[in-house]
Amino acid sequence: xxxxILKLKTRVSFLAFIVLSSLLISCxxxxxxxxxxxxxxxxxxxxxxxxxxxxxxxxxxxxxxxKCLSQLNQSQMVNQLFDAVYNKKATAYNYNTNLPMTISDIxxxxxxxxxxxxxxxxxxxxxxxYYDADKLEMSKKVHSILxxxxxxxxxxxxxxxxxxxxxxxxx
Length: 171
What we know:
The structure is a single chain. With about 170 residues, the chain is of the alpha+beta class. The protein is about 35% helix and about 30% strand. It contains five helices and five strands; from the N terminus they run ααβααβαβββ. The chain is globular and about 55 Å long.
């Protein structure tokens, strides 16, 4: 009797191994390339929408903006965008000409008077928006991100923002 139970346990273990292996393999069949280029589910609401987001509060007295940005790590975000360019994971593009910029161009930008990574105050996104009415879910696919830095007046008040460069995502 114990021999039959042992054989049965062995078969069950073997079948469980096969099922789990099949599940793991099927979950990993999508390569990062496939996932990167996949379209989110749902109805296309906007293709392509362009909008700007303040990522640095230009007014120390603006409590609402401060609260809205309280969970944002601006320096990490900006540094990672620059690192992607410097590590050749992303190509920087000139906002005015749409031509690729070299790493030397980016280094020159960083030497520009008034430029500082700490002064990157706005991002502009090019996105597609999708809405799944059945799940009540919205998803976005970001195509490009532009960084813009603050232009300050002599009295250090914000005059506006100047485009630094943009990178394309999901190539």
